[in-house]
Amino acid sequence: MDFDLSEEQRLLKDSVERLLGDHGSFERRQAHAREPDGWSRRLWARYAELGLLGLPFEERHGGLGAGPVETMVVMEALGRALALEPYLATVVLAGGLIRHAGSDRQKSSLVPKIAGGSLILAFAQGERQARYDLADVATTARKDGDGWVLDGEKGVALHGDSADRLIVSARVAGTRRERAGIGLFLVDATALGVTRRGYPTVDGLRAAEIALSGVRVDAHDVLGDPGKALPVIELVVDEAIAALAAESIGVMAVMHEATVEYLKTRKQFGATIGSFQVLQHRAVDMLMALEQARSMALFATMMVTEPNAGERRKAMAATKVQIGRSGKLIGQQAIQLHGGIGMTEAYKVGHYFKRMTMIDILFGPAEHHLTALARADGLIEA
Amino acid sequence: MDLRFTPDEIAFRDEVRAFFRSSVPDGVRRKMIDGRHLAKEDFVVWQRLLNARGWAVPHWPVEWGGTGWSPVQQYLFLDEMQQAPAPPPLAFGVNMLGPVLIAFGSEAQKRRFLPRIANIDDWWCQGFSEPGAGSDLASLRTSAKRDGDHYVVNGQKTWTTLAQHADWIFCLVRTDPQAKKQQGISFLLIDMKSKGITVRPIVTIDGSREINEVFFDDVRVPVENLVGEENKGWDYAKFLLGNERVGIARVGVSKERVRRLKQLAALERDGDRPMIEDERFRERIALVEVELKALEITQLRVVAAERSRTDKRPDPASSILKIKGSEIQQAVTELALELVGPYAMPAPQEPDEGSNEPPIGPDWAGSVAPTYFNWRKISIYGGSNEIQKNIIAKAILGL
Ligand SMILES: Cc1cc2nc3c(=O)[nH]c(=O)nc-3n(C[C@H](O)[C@H](O)[C@H](O)COP(=O)(O)OP(=O)(O)OC[C@H]3O[C@@H](n4cnc5c(N)ncnc54)[C@H](O)[C@@H]3O)c2cc1C
C-alpha cells in the first residue's frame, strides 16, 4: 500500500503546477476564453513542450508511456487552473480510443501529432436521444466499396468545434441501443458532409453539434473492429471518468481554499465570519466531502486498469456518485458562504461551481450512477 | 379545526384564477414558464393591468388602494398569481417601500408616491446593502450630511436589484456618525436622476444582469425626502424586512415549477420510456411535493395566526418559511438540471435579431442550468439562511 507519488510523478506535478501557475491564472483563463477557439493555442503548445499531450501513449508510437497516475496528476492541476484546453477531448477521450483501438500504423501516424500539439481531436459519441447510454447510437455507417459512409447527428461533442479530426461512433449493424454493431471512424472535421455548430458550454468550455450527411470514410480511417467498439468506448469513458474525478479534486480544492480564506478575512458584526461556529462546521463538512472525493479519485485511478470490466465499471460509477455529491455540496456552500460576492461572474468561485456542475453531468450525474451501481449489486458482496 | 377553505373563499379563489387565466399576457406567461428573464416592459404592462383591476396593492389600506381582503384571501390571491404564473407586482415599491410610507411617511409623501407605486409609474429599487454591510446591515457607511434644506449623500450601495430600470432608490444612510451603530441611520428617498449617481452593472454567475453597484458622489437630496424621523431609519428598515410574512416562501412558485417539471419529465425520454417513469426520479419529485405540502400548511398556519395577532411585529415563523421555501425552490432547479441531461451543457444562445437557428437541444433546456446557478441567490438575499436560523434560535428558542 502506497499513496505517495514517485519522484518522477512529483516532478511532473511540480512542473504542471508551475506552468499553470505562471500561465493559467484565473484572469488569463478568462482572457483565453475570448480567443477564437475559446481556449489558448499558446498554452496548448506549452502543454506539448512539457510532454503532457503525449503522456499516456506508448513510447514506440511517440508518447511518454505514462499511466493513469500521471493522467491524474495532470488532470488535478488542470482542474485547479480551471483549464479551457481540449485535454480531455484530445488526449483522454480521442487519445484513449486510439490507444485501445488503433492499429500500429494509425498510432504511429497520429500520436506524434497529438503529442506535438498540432492535432486536436474530439470524440463525437453522444446523440440527442441517448442521454448517458453509450450503446444508444443511431448514427449509421454503411459499407461502400472499401470504405464507409456515415449519416447521423452527434451532440455535445466536447471541443468538437476546434477539432481537426473527429472520432465518430456509428452503427454498422443492429438496432439502436444494441450493444453489438458499433464502429469507430476517424473523420476530418472539414470533410464533405460534416456540418458543425460550435458553442460555449455553461462552464465556459466549448462543444459542438455535428451533423453527418453521406460522409465518406476510407478503410484506413476505421478504428478497430467495426461492430465491436462498445467495450472500447466503455473503457475509454471509464478512463475519462477517472480523469474527470481527478480534475474535480482540483476544482473542489480551489473552492474550499477560497472559502476558508474568505471566512478568515470577511468581517461582519465586528468579527471575521470564520469565527461563527456554524460556518466553521460548514467549512469542515466541505473538507470532509473533498477528502472523501479525493479518496474515490484515487480509487478510480487504480481501478482504471482493472481487467474485469464489470468491476471497473462499478468502481467508476461509485466514483461518479462520490464526486458528484461532494462537488455539489462544496460548490453550493462555496457560493453560500461568500454571500453576494459568490454570485458574481467577476469572482472565480462561481466559475469553479459551474465547471463542477458540468463535470457531474458529463457521462452521467451522481444519481444516474447510483442507480447503475445499485443495479450491479453495489461494491460489497452479500 | 378545518383545513378546507369556506365556499366564499373558494369562490374568491376561482374569481382570481379566472382573472389570471384571461389577463396575463401570453408572451409574459410563456417567458415565465420557460424560465426566461422578464423585460422591464413586461413588469410594467402587467402591473398596470392589475392596478386597473384594483389588485396591484391588495394588502395596503383601502384608502391607498388596498382591497380589504382577509389574510386568507391575500394568501389565495398570491398563490394563484404565482401558480398562473404571473409576475409579482414590483416588490421594492409594493411590498417594501409602500408599507413603510403608509406607516411612517408624511401625508405629502404618501400622496406623492403611493399611487405611483401602485401603478408602477416609478420604478423603485432597494439601497440597503453595501460592500462592507451585508448580513451586518447596521454597519453601513453611506453618509448623509445636512446642508440647509438638503442632505448631501456620499458612499456606495451594492447588489442593488434592477437599479438599471429604477427611477428612485430608497436608501439607508448614516446621518449621525457618532451614534451607536443602529441609532445613526436614516431612511432616505433618492431620485435616481440626481447628479452624482452612477450605476454600474454586476453580472451574475448565470450571465444575467439583474444586480448593480450604485455610487453616490455629493448627491443632493431634499430634506422632504426623509422618511419619518432622522436617525430612526433602522426601525423602519426592521419593519420593512420583517413585513412580508405571506409569500416569502413562494409556495405558489414552487408548485408551478414542480408542475412544469412533471410535464417535462413526461416528455423527456430516457431509453424507451419517459423520465417520469423512472421510479427513483419520480420519488425524488414526490419528496419535494411532500416538503412543499408541509410548507404550504405551515404557511397557512402563519396566515391563520395573523388574523388574531394584535401586535404588528414580524412573526419569527416567517424565517422558517424563508428557509424552507428557498430550499424547496433550489431543490426543484436541481431536479430540472438532472432532467435535461447532457443538454444542460450548452450555454443559452443570445437570440440573434432575425436569426432562425433553432436552439441547441430541447427548446426548454437553455434556461435550466442558468436558473440552477441563479437561484442559489435565494438562500443569500433578504437575510441569508444562516441569519434566518440565528433569528429563529434567538426569537423562537430564546437561545
Ligand atoms: C442576487 C442578489 C440580489 C440582491 N438584491 C439586493 C437589493 O436589491 N438591495 C439590497 O440592499 N441588497 C440586495 N442583496 C444583498 C443581500 O441582501 C446580501 O447579499 C445579504 O444580506 C448577504 O450579505 P453579504 O453578501 O455581504 O454576505 P455576508 O454578510 O458577508 O455573508 C457571508 C456569509 O456569512 C454568513 N454569515 C454572516 N453573518 C453570520 C452570522 N452572524 N452567523 C452565521 N453566518 C453568518 C452569511 O450567511 C453568508 O453565508 C442582493 C443579493 C443578491 C445575491
In short:
The complex is a heterodimer of chains A (382) and B (399). With 382 residues, chain A is an alpha+beta fold.
List keywords for this structure.
heterodimer, A: 382 residues, alpha+beta, Butyryl-CoA Dehydrogenase, subunit A, domain 2, Butyryl-CoA Dehydrogenase, subunit A, domain 3, 3 domains, four-stranded mixed beta sheet, 11 helices, 10 strands, B: Butyryl-Coa Dehydrogenase, subunit A, domain 1, 12 helices, binds flavin-adenine dinucleotide
Distance between the termini of chain B: 32 Å
Unreliably modeled segments of chain B: none
Which percent bin holds the helix content of chain B? Answer: 40-55%
Q: What's the alpha carbon Rg of chain A, rounded to whole Å?
A: 21 Å
* Main structural class of chain B: alpha+beta
Uncertain spans of chain A: none
CATH architecture of the largest domain in chain B: Up-down Bundle
Structural class of chain A: alpha+beta
CATH H level, superfamily name of the largest domain in chain B: Butyryl-CoA Dehydrogenase, subunit A, domain 3
Give the biggest beta sheet of chain B.
4 strands, mixed
Helix-strand pattern of chain B: HHHHHHEEEEEEEEHHEEHHHH
Q: In what range is the share of β-strand residues of chain A?
A: 15-25%
Judging by the overall fold, what is the CATH architecture of the largest domain in chain A? Up-down Bundle
